[in-house]
Amino acid sequence: MAYQLEIKELFFSYGKKEVLKNINISIKPGSFISIIGPNGSGKSTLLKIISTYLKPQKGNILLDSNKIQMYSRRNISKRISVVPQNTSLEFDFKVKDIVLMGRHPYIERFKGESKDDMEVSGKAMRYTNTMKLSHRMFSELSGGEKQRVILAQALAQEPEILLLDEPVSHLDLQHQVEILDLIKRMSTQENLTIISVLHDLNMASAYSDYIIMLKDGSILHEGKPETILNRKNIAEVFNINVHINGNPVTGKPYIYTLSGVKRKKRNTKIHIICGGGSGQEIIRTLASEGFVITTGVLNIGDSDWTISKEYQLEIAEETPFAGISGNAHHKNVELALKANVIVLTQVYFSKGNLLNLEVLLDGKLSKKKIYIIEEEVSFKERDFTGGKATSIYERLKERENIRIFKKDKLIEILMKNGENIEN
After folding, report:
1. Which end of the chain is more exposed for a tag (fewer CB within 10 A), N or C?
2. What is the spatial distance between Cα 238 and Cα 213, in angstroms, rounded to a whole number?
3. Residue 422 clears pLDDT 70, i.e. is over it
4. Do 212 and 50 contact (CB within 8 A), yes or no?
5. What percentage of residues in the chain have a pLDDT greater than 90?
6. pLDDT band at residue 263, thresholds of 50, 70 and 90?
7. Is 170 exposed, middle or buried (0-12, 13-18, 19+ CB in 10 A)?
8. pTM reported for the whole predicted model
């Protein structure tokens, strides 16, 4: 198999401190490779060595089977470009000039930019959606805009390999996704090889074809995300406890960190019927106070499902967009029967989750205390069943075991009464 880039038996030290030990990597053209690992594991140093900014004490880097030192600095710059973690510039320039700087390896000495240089820079700016920023000063841009400009500069080099050192670590979620979508598109559409250091494991899972896990300068694990992103490997590399579930859209691993903080325990069991984020605050508050919380029925990947997993709660769960199955409904009834109290949050109801409301009419729950949260959004506004959910709700309100509260008041009551809440 022809590899575009190979690293063989590489070692590197800063003085007496060994930073990288016996690194062996083979990378195919057009791959999206992520390097992950804790701080100090050697990730950024490895990128600097690939870019030839640093020279290893031992080992070789092969570019198309040739030792990389056989290439001139100019030729390496034509084939490998770098997007650093820090996008600040010592001097301020217009965006168009910064992107044009990426053409430096192609501009002959004492000659200005050619028509071809201008066309390539323009293409890079169109690709990164920075053309509209051409005449803006770099210092005036937002963090996401600056990152796209530096990316455009790197693309103007027309590289075959793009190295990125935590390209989204200082951006908000929207701009993280925007930048990584762009980078992934370059990999798949332009056959550009991407080697990126990423901090976020879920971002690495979602975008990578292959992941390299570094710890203390050594490669502990490498492979496809679905193969190596498991609880055992993550605990070994990062020393953290996680829960892993398949992303319902991509099927790739999705990682949830589990809190290691020990919480006081209460005997009161509370089953919360929620969904769509309506239960996050009450779950977080009551679970942190030591109540035994269960939830359901929740779609896998729902934000309330996510926080339930974070607090290691027992959940009645269901596959997204599948409606509530008999098994999930049975589990929901089972958890409700075990609880001292049942809480219904401000859920929006449709045909798919109507059973979560109907379950409260179950005769077996007629003696359970059921607390319903009602606030600014009326039930009718949350009913997308053509009035069927509202009809059930009106029947529920007639029952003696039903009480309606605002969320803050309900939390206050539960916190105050604690162990004295009876079935």
Report:
1. N
2. 10
3. no
4. no
5. 47
6. low
7. middle
8. 0.65
Q: Cα separation of 59 and 324, whole Å?
A: 57
Separation between Cα atoms, residue 304 and residue 295, nearest integer Å: 9
* Angstrom distance (rounded) from CA 52 to CA 4: 16
Cα(212)–Cα(25) distance, rounded to whole angstroms?
9
Asked whether 321 and 249 are in contact (CB, 8 A), the reply is: no
Question: Which residues make beta-bridge pairs with 273?
Answer: 344
Q: Are 298 and 274 in contact (CB under 8 A)?
A: yes
Characterize 382-392 residue by residue with b for buried, 16 or more Cβ atoms within 10 angstroms of its Cβ, and e for exposed.
bbebeeebbeb
CA–CA distance, 82 with 74 (Å, rounded to integer): 14
Rg (C-alpha) for the chain, rounded Å, is 28
Tell whether the model's pLDDT for residue 287 goes beyond 50: yes
In this structure, of 17-26, 58-67, 112-121, the range with the lowest mean pLDDT score is 112-121
Q: What are the CA-CA distances from residue 120 to residues 71, 157, 347 (Å)?
A: 23, 9, 52
Segment 27-65, tens digit of pLDDT = 999 999 999 999 889 999 999 999 999 999 999 999 988
Contacts of residue 399, Cβ cutoff 8 Å, sequence gap at least 6:
366, 370
Rounded to an integer, the average pLDDT of 347-354 is 89
Quote the crossing angle between the two packed helices 115-127 and 143-156, to the nearest 10°: 140
